[in-house]
Amino acid sequence: MSKRPRSRQQELFVQTSALPQSPGHPFHEKLNEILAAHGFDDFVEELCASYYADTRGRPSIPPGVYFRMLMVGYFEGLGSERGIDWRVADSLTLRQFVGYELTDHTPDHSSLSRIRQRLSLDVHQEVFNWIEKVLAKEGLLKGKTLAVDATTLEANAALRSIVRQDSGERYEEYLEGLAQASGIETPTRQDLAKLDKKRPKKGSNDDWRHPHDPDARITKMKDGRTHLAHKSEHVVDLQTQAIVAINLCGADEGDTESLPWSLIQASMNLQEIILDEEVRKQLDPGSFIAEVVTGKGYHSNDTVKALQRADIRGYLSEPDRGRRKWEKDREAQAAVYGNRRRIRGERGKALQRLRAEYTERSFAHTYETGGMRRTHLRGRANIYKRLCIHAGAFNLGLVMRKITGRGTPRGLHGLLSALIATWRLLQRAFCLPGKYLARLRASIQPMLRPIQRAILAFRPPRPVFSTGC
Fold it and tell me: How many helices and strands, by DSSP H and E, does the chain display?
């Protein structure tokens, strides 16, 4: 038995042959092949050329590396740039994915933050549109039947730090002023809590704001907590599950108010990608946004009338409002009755089931397992930049799922493990004694050998460490 060394002298020189090497992960290798086949690095370098100076200074980070590291945030479930920086620096596989050797220093979080601040919203939006072009070329984007739904993202701000819109007072100072005005000279915490409990509309966004994140709004989350948050609205293609557009707005903004802007953003994205000649051959611009499917929160007279005027078939779930009178607005009556007839049909029910599945799936992948349910950035512009690349990585996962059967590295590894376990079970079953099983094994074994070789060839290899011998 040997003992663990308590101290060790650092080597002055290390041979390159003695450095650890990784064969990489087949998921990341295939993803890099797809990006290279469509010219991703050339596109982003030309797009970001005006943001890079020719003067010497701190070593620059290629745009392809920056956007790949943000994609790592989605595939590895990391919401913060510090976590992305640490993960890429620690993993040999991710170093190979972004294009860094073991002797190279990976970009730190401050460099990622500086690049994000310098690159405009339009640059991140162009990268998202470029990924949509890849989807269209792979047949994974149609743009005809779209579903719209929204969720809340917890802001990087605390409620205890909010201040008054007019005077800038903190919440506790404001309560102390109210207590003194009511006759309590030295109020205690119990007095303040009792006074605050009886006040109506004490958390109004018209009266309060966060000093460091004015875009955050006070709202009630899905789990019942009251928190500062943002609202993220997804426009999802129901034929392919692709995210067509993202709209980031205030958490206190109603669904009927944000829906037009989401559809406008989706229309702009589709019109942008149709400019590509190869995409134009596969998509029909005349069929864009022909059907829109939403939940009950989006239903209103103005919404259904606007969709009817735009020649869009709406499938909006209608809340129970009781018996209504239509003498003053016959146009709304015709639009509401037409929408009611559609949602009660077989196609309407099928589209509502798909909407509930696909939109929630996009939320689960991008925000729950993707690590963006709680934002680590402040300011709607900064958050939207991250969301563009985050949703773009989700769309790239659809391409990978079409090719490999799984959309994430962990999912691919789990699929291969399940296939190998199934193969081993079959092997054990055929190895049982018996005259009939022996004959069956002899007849089936030659057919199973190619499958076994294919599985073992596609299995992610284990990291190989060179000893330098």
Answer: 17, 10
Q: To which residue do tokens 């450095």 refer?
A: 19
Lookup result for tokens 């060394």: 5
* Domain residue ranges in the chain: 22-119, 122-156+232-376, 163-209, 413-465
State which H helix or E strand residue 75 sits in. Answer: helix 63-75
pLDDT at 450: 55
- In sequence order, which ranges of 142-188 are alpha helices (DSSP H)? 171-181
DSSP letter for each residue of 367-408? IITTS-SB-S--SHHHHHHHHHHHHHHHHHHHHHHHHHS-SS
Count of alpha carbons within 13 Å of 232, Cβ hemisphere only? 32
- Interatomic CA distance for residues 351 and 183, integer angstroms: 60
Below-70 pLDDT ranges, the chain: 1-2, 16-20, 22-23, 55-57, 411-469
343, 318 Cβ separation under 8 angstroms: yes
Distance CA 62, CA 55 (A): 15
Are the CB atoms for 465 and 33 separated by under 8 Å?
A: no
- Single out the residue of 372, 311, 318, 371 nearest to residue 341, CA to CA: 318
Strands 208-209 and 145-154, by their bridges, are: unpaired
Structural tokens at position 349 = 């029910």
pLDDT score of 468: 36
For 94, the 3-state DSSP assignment is helix
For residue range 401-412, list pLDDT tens digits in order.
Answer: 888 777 777 766
Q: Left, alpha or beta for 168 (phi > 0: left; psi -120 to 50: alpha)?
A: left
Tokens of 283: 């998509």
Structure tokens at 150: 């929204």
What's the confidence (pLDDT) of residue 174?
Answer: 86
Rounded to 10°, the helix 81-90/63-75 angle is 100
Q: Which of 253, 362, 337, 235 is nearest to 291 (CA)?
A: 235
Q: Which residues pair with 220 in a beta bridge?
A: 226
pLDDT for res 323: 87
